[in-house]
Amino acid sequence: MKRASKRFFLLILCFFCLLEPVGHAKNIGHYGQTFPVNEEDIRKVIMNKLYALQQSGDLEHVQRDLEQKAARQAMRPNPLALSTTRKPKTFRISPAVTVSHDVWTPDGHLIAKAGTRINPFERVHFLKTLIFFNADDAGQVAWVKKHYTDFKHVKFILTGGDVRVAAKLFGRIYFDVNGIISSKLHLQHVPSIVSQEGLDWQVKEIGVNDE
Fold this sequence. Notes:
flat
């Protein structure tokens, strides 16, 4: 297998390390008597409701409202509960993961067997610098505007705010929907600067008094 192919799949694994589920669902049992769900009845209720909306002329309005709500949610997702701090710290997080199943390339080469612990940074270097910040906070926006040119290959990741407004200031913007990435990086405060340092992610918090 070519080295470039290996590097590509290890780089993809870097993102899997960030995007894999934070925890596992757990069965907590049930209480009281249970009853079977009549799926046919549920479908009839839904279809009857849709038919009634169509007959009354309200279905088009409902569709329009849903589309507008979805558009607003896409441009302004729910903000994350990440605060600012007066006591910023710098810490490291390992990107290593234990794979739960054999990992293969599309051309049939085995990358890792199930149970293997892999640190992608042993093979690849992540060139991007991730800047997490809340675009609804004028102070955070001002800091990012002042300092983002200090870093190469920046990716802006919002934890709050309007994506369109932020995009006008910084160009391409990402939003950490549901905090999937920030939770993997153990972020507690924003702004935070994340980059590769050796075999780890380095997280550097920016304090409210930092200029």
